[in-house]
Each structure stands twice: as C-alpha cells, then as structure tokens.
Amino acid sequence: MESKGDIEVVVDGGPASTQEYPGGPVYNQGAPMPVPGPDPVPYSGPPPPQEAYPMHPPPVYTTTAQPIAGSVPPPPPGYVNTLVIRPGFTALPCNINCPNCNNAVTTVTHKEVGMMVWLMAGGMILLGLWLGCCLVPFCIDSLKDTVHTCPVCKHTVGKFTHM
To answer: Fewer CB near the last or first residue (10 Å), C or N of the chain?
Structure first.
C-alpha cells in the first residue's frame, strides 16, 4: 500500500475484501450479497396433465312425428302454398293487386303527419326556433307519411314512413 496524504490507495487488489476510504469501508462489488429469507423450494416442473372431461360421443336422439291434439294437420299431397309479397311502398303511387277486392289498381295516396314531422319540430324547438319556425315541418309534405289506399274499395293497402 502506498500512502498519499490522508488517503490510502491499494495498489495490489489481492485477497482483501474491503478498501479503506475517508468515508468508511467500501465492499467489493464482484459477488452479490446473500439475501436472508426462507429456504427456496426446489421447482419440480409443471404438474402432470389431468383429463378435464372424458371424451364421449354426443347422444343420438331419434324422434317420430306424432300429431299433437288440436294442431293443424299437414296439407294434402300436391297442395302448393302461395306466398304473396307486397311491394315496398314509396311516397309515390304504385301498381298493386288490392288484397281486399283483388283488383289490379294504382294506389291513391294522401299525406299524414308522422313521427318525422314531430321529431323535426321538436329539434327546432330545442335549437331555439320556438316562435313559429317549429311549425314549418307540418307544412312540408315530403316529411309526412304517405298512406296508400285502393281507389275501388277505399281499403288502406299500406303506408310509407320515414322512420
């Protein structure tokens, strides 16, 4: 060891475990210090696999058609069921077969106040247009619902709504 002033300097690091400095001993930084605590439990690997569910085929169900009391019997052989699909109604008159009188007609339309008119009026009130401007949607026919009627029997065939 050499001495330079107040500080001793170790020239040969050798087997010494500490070095002396004016602030106190400094330990070697080579090996980590042991941490006291319980003894570690040795790891033996993952647990053995277990069968979650036994593999069985799904059950087979067999049924026989049995009539239920009060039910509608099946149609006779050769019977054809006819499904009539009505066209989607628009704001314009359309050509249809009236389901009431069975005539091929062009519908007669008229307008009625529907949900769209009320929503527009309510929206205008919320925006502060309550001094009469909110009544404007009630005067616009394109916002109203269109009702289609048969010109022969006056039966209401359908309705076109904006909602």
So the answer is: C
Q: Is the pLDDT of residue 111 over 80?
A: yes
- DSSP secondary structure, 105-116, as one string: EEPEEEEE--HH
Is residue 129 situated within a structural domain?
A: yes
What does the alpha-carbon distance between residue 155 and residue 112 come to, in Å, rounded to a whole number?
Answer: 16
Q: Considering only CA atoms, which of 92, 89, 93, 141 is closest in space to residue 116?
A: 141
- Total domains in the chain come to 1
Higher pLDDT, 163 or 68: 163
Contacts of 18 (CB under 8 A, 6+ apart): 25, 26, 27, 28
